[in-house]
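U., I forgot to send this yesterday:
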Amino acid sequence: MAESPKTVSEYIRTFPPATQQLLQAIRTTIQDAVPEAQEAISYRIAAFTVGGKYLMYFAGHSKHVAVYPIPPLPASTQKQIEPYQASKGTLRFALDKPLPLALIRKLALAHRKRIKETAKK
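Result:
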């Protein structure tokens, strides 16, 4: 078994160039939305944390890239994710289609809000 990547950059480099571009776009979108987020590797995939709590994960696969988990969302946003929803907590994006980066940004911001609200309790 190959050694697990230790950084998000190492993780992204394990994929073909086209997949790397998509993963880098997801990474940049999350970083821009939540600048205080820290990169991590967890469960052998890329992740971001805020204040020691996992914000969200993203991963490459042979036919798609994915983000997880999906936070509770308003009905209007829920409708936006339906075309990509693979399961209750996973969104998949085909490698040959444009990424919905504005939607990924919304998810990152919703997760940050969830983490901040949880920390207040």
